[in-house]
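Action item from last meeting closed. Structure (197 res):
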């Protein structure tokens, strides 16, 4: 969008007296082709696509996921760096000077998932220069501005989902890396799937 050439997009998690809650322009894309990973898991390589499916029983029960002290969610490069510094005070600089990636693990608490599965974009099909826009998420609770990345759809992108996903089937996808290159990420979005289709 031409607006983003002169103005950085943002979203506030609070009501402001002087600014709208967001200046992001949302476009509801329709009829995006989605491809079922099931039966084709071997065609996706984590190194190229940023997506993997593994079968693994979790030691956590569904009730554990409502206990926030057991869940770690770092959605930006800055918050990931802060987490590493908090967790590894003595060796944080050594860790941060190495190459690293942050992955997201997605699993249903109950299954199979028939409606609202997670769609994942093959990272190798994203054009970082044209498809990605850096935006600010202003979070009042921690009094911090977190940079994030918005992805704009283009017809070269390939989006996947895992039909009838079970709790033992984990979707793993790349989020951040030490180089800070958003083009290496796999982007995700839930989508409505007609249970009868």
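Sequence:
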């Amino acid at each position: 969008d031409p607006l983003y050439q002169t103005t950085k997009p943002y979203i506030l998690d609070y009501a402001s007296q002087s600014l709208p809650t967001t200046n992001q322009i949302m476009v509801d894309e329709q009829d995006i082709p989605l491809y079922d990973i099931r039966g084709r898991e071997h065609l996706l390589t984590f190194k190229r696509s940023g997506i993997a499916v593994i079968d693994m029983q979790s030691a956590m029960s569904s009730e554990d996921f409502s206990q926030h002290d057991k869940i770690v969610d770092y959605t930006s490069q800055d918050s990931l760096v802060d987490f590493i510094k908090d967790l590894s005070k003595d060796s944080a600089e050594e860790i941060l000077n190495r190459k690293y990636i942050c992955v997201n693990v997605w699993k249903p608490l109950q299954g199979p998932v028939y409606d609202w599965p997670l769609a994942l974009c093959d990272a190798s099909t994203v054009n970082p220069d044209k498809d990605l826009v850096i935006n600010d998420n202003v979070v009042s609770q921690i009094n911090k501005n977190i940079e994030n990345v918005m992805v704009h759809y283009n017809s070269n992108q390939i989006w996947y989902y895992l039909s009838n996903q079970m709790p033992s089937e984990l979707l793993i996808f790349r989020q951040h890396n030490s180089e800070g290159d958003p083009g290496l990420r796999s982007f995700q979005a839930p989508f409505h799937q007609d249970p009868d289709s």
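Note appended to the action item: The first strand starts at residue 10 and ends at 12.
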